[in-house]
């Protein structure tokens, strides 16, 4: 491969990588803010408030007492989240167990009291003009 061909290949690869990074910035900041607000409620053990702020889809899957109990058990097992870092956001138009719609999967790398490396995964969707959490998992 000659020098010019190498420059072209490297340029194409760099442009592709930069485009991917730029695309991450195109996701609505309100969706990330909704996810962060939701996780703050959980950090403060305001489980009922988090449930109230969640989407109708989450409420169809779990009743409030069931959901609160799951969060409390998770807190006992892993401890509260001490630190989190936004890692990625992926758009999806389908999600297992939920109707087809436009969703964002927001992935945080987290550290809890009893787990050095955990993952928080939130699924959010636009309900009217507000982003709401449809699903939350701490793994």
Automatic annotation (TrEMBL):
Cite the entry's keywords alphabetically: Signal
Q: Which InterPro entries match?
A: DUF4019
Signal peptide (UniProt feature, chain positions): 1-24
- Which Pfam family name is an example for this entry? DUF4019
Q: What is this protein called?
A: DUF4019 domain-containing protein
């Amino acid at each position: 491969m000659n020098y010019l061909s190498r420059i072209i290949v490297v340029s194409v690869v760099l442009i592709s990588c930069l485009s991917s990074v730029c695309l991450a910035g195109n996701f609505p900041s309100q969706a990330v803010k909704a996810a962060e607000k939701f996780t703050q409620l959980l950090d403060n053990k305001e489980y009922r408030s988090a449930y109230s702020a969640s989407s109708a889809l989450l409420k169809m899957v779990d009743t409030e007492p069931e959901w609160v109990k799951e969060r409390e058990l998770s807190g006992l097992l892993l401890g509260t989240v001490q630190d989190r870092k936004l890692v990625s956001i992926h758009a999806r138009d389908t999600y297992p167990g939920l109707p087809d719609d436009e969703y964002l999967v927001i992935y945080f790398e987290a550290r809890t009291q009893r787990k050095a490396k955990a993952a928080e995964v939130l699924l959010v969707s636009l309900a009217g003009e507000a982003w709401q959490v449809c699903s939350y998992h701490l793994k």
